[in-house]
Amino acid sequence: MLKGILSMTGASVILGSLPTINKYILNSGLSSGCIVFYSMLTVSLWSCLITIVSKKSFRVSPKKFYFMFILGSMGMGGTGFLLNISYEYISVGLTTMLHFMYPSLVCFLMIFMFKQNLTFLKAGAIVFSILGMLLILELSSSVNFIGIITAILSSISYAFYIIANEKGEINELPLIVKLFYISSAAAIVFGIQTIASGSLSLPSSSLVYLQLFGLSGTGSLIAFYLMISGIKVLGASTASFFNMLEPLISLFVSTLCFNEYLSTKTIFGSILVISSVLFIALDGLNNIKETESLGTTIHS
Predict the structure, then answer these.
(1) Contact at 8 Å (CB) between 197 and 206?
(2) Which three-class secondary structure state does DSSP give residue 201?
């Protein structure tokens, strides 16, 4: 449990900082698809190198290869693409908060599709997270419609990615091998997309190179590795709510870098989001205690 919590927290810190970095890269002139292509290419090359050095096998069945290709192109790559488009139209903080409706989507899907139990604490976490998000959004007529839609679509694609990681047929694969195939799929799809659209270009300066390959690309590798590790330990629903720390970090960093205004409602909404994380943590601890108690009863 502790390993899963630490993994998801680490992923949240890194992923919460990446939107601000990607916003800077977008402002330099690179397109949304171009950023996804370069970032996923970096993740793919690093994970390939680590797989070779650790002497793990790349061999997978055609069925698993196809599954990971869809997961990478639609889940990982698609989510990044939608988020980058949203950053172009609305603030980083607002985009991130809309995107983070995905834990509620994950929870509902896990309950109705996979018959997962809905506990009192988990129900409270869903309610608190939704209320927190609504307070943080503070939608007005001045907010760009395209930015809102793409942010919401990113939450749907990411919910798919989270559930597929837990319920798919690739859990037995080493994490780094799984990352290689998923990131490679995203790099291939968005490499083709940028070439076809004529938007493929190189970074404009050494600083942008560092932001793109050093921070966004390598940071994504570390974050995705930690996230998949956390999902494997905690399960999709619990892991997704621990990752709710990400929007708070993103909101804080983007506020510092872009002087985005934080109202009283936004601050109170953030408190509700943190409370939802606490509820899920308590629910996970209760499940562990119940399992241990059941095991003790059986053995006695």
Answers:
(1) no
(2) coil
Helices 145-167 & 102-114, crossing angle to 10 degrees?
A: 40
Q: Give the pLDDT mean for 251-267.
A: 81
Lowest mean pLDDT among 44-48, 49-53, 169-173: 169-173
For residues 37 and 263, the answer to whether their CB atoms sit within 8 Å is: no
Phi, psi of 296 (to 5 degrees): -65, -40
pTM of full prediction above 0.90 = no
One-letter amino acid of 110 = M
* Tokens, residue 250: 């993103």
How would you class 260 by CB atoms within 10 Å of its CB: exposed for 0-12, middle for 13-18, buried for 19 or more? middle
CB 237 within 8 A of CB 113: no
**Tell me, what's the pLDDT at 234?**
78
Cα 146–chain centre separation: 21
pLDDT at 113 over 60: yes
- Among 73, 122, 112, 60, CA closest to 280: 122
Is the separation of the CB atoms in 217 and 43 below 8 Å? yes
- 47-51, 128-132, 134-138, 294-298: segment of lowest average pLDDT: 294-298
Q: What is the pLDDT of residue 139?
A: 54
Looking at residue 259, its amino acid is N
Supply 20's token pair: 């601000």
